[in-house]
Amino acid sequence: MDEIVRMIAADGTVRAVAITGKDMAERARQIHKTLPVATAALGRTLMGCAMMGSDLKTEDGSVTLRIQGGGPLGSITAVADSHGNARGYLQNGQVDLPRKAPVKLDVGSAVGTDGYLTVIKDIGLKEPYVGSVELVSGEIAEDLTSYFAVSEQIPTACGLGVLINTDQSVLCAGGYIVQLLPGADDAVAGRLEGAVGRLGPVTDVLNRGADAQTLLEQLLEGMGAELLERVPVSYRCYCSRERVSRALISLGRNELEHMIEEQGETDLTCQFCDAVYHFSKEELKTILQEATKA
């Protein structure tokens, strides 16, 4: 089962969150029928978004990550709730590129670097918070590190990885976000930098049997790390017939009348989970009446 683990250093100078997301990334692969480099890119985005969502203090809050790098994958979108459950999609999941090494997928080239990483945080205020930074590498973890440094002014180390099996399924997936808090001095920063270097690629550690807590214990070794929480997370879509009906109403009277005249009926597919919702001509007429009232 996938989970998110949160820890803090004993002196309160470092906070850290880690995720194991094999099932989340595999579910995304199955839904969107992605090839390996697309699976890795979408999986990394989902896990990064899930960790950020779980950090929200608002029960009904959400975080949206949007990556548009100009690469062959097109744009990548992930949305997470405040519990760390995430869903997502990308434009071109059938992209296949040569590997950088026998087990190293070239996610950076697939994503591209000619564009931006955008974070949208909805915490129940009138307007959501929107932060955007230029992409650094397209590898996603480095781009999130840049986002935290530039938009939130928080020194951050981020690691994300998705290891693909020979049958193209997800063998393991996970990541971490470790941040320095006010009061952290250069010694703490240096210690953390050394720990990140010793840890190496996330998937190497996970493939040896480590879980999210073990990841953080290695990163915060010697800091008296305190476990704050362990919560299960999953790939979760909140689409429903009612929500899709509301989306149709929002199209407005003219658009609905045109749809009824031209098509008579319609099938709408959820971008996140590929669920198909069929609406007959009679149902569209009922929705048109609702739209007219609105």
Automatic annotation (TrEMBL):
InterPro entries in the cross-refs: Heat_shock_Hsp33, Heat_shock_Hsp33_C, Heat_shock_Hsp33_N
Alphabetical GO biological process terms: protein refolding
Location in or out of the cell: Cytoplasm
GO MF annotation terms: protein folding chaperone; unfolded protein binding
Keywords: Chaperone, Cytoplasm, Disulfide bond, Redox-active center, Stress response, Zinc
Disulfide linkage: C237-C239, C270-C273
CDD domains membership: Hsp33
GO cellular component: cytoplasm
Keyword ATP-binding listed: no
PTM entry text: Under oxidizing conditions two disulfide bonds are formed involving the reactive cysteines. Under reducing conditions zinc is bound to the reactive cysteines and the protein is inactive.
SUPFAM superfamilies registered for this protein in UniProt: Hsp33 domain, HSP33 redox switch-like
Job of this protein: Redox regulated molecular chaperone. Protects both thermally unfolding and oxidatively damaged proteins from irreversible aggregation. Plays an important role in the bacterial defense system toward oxidative stress.
Record-given protein name: 33 kDa chaperonin
The organism of origin for this protein: Intestinimonas butyriciproducens
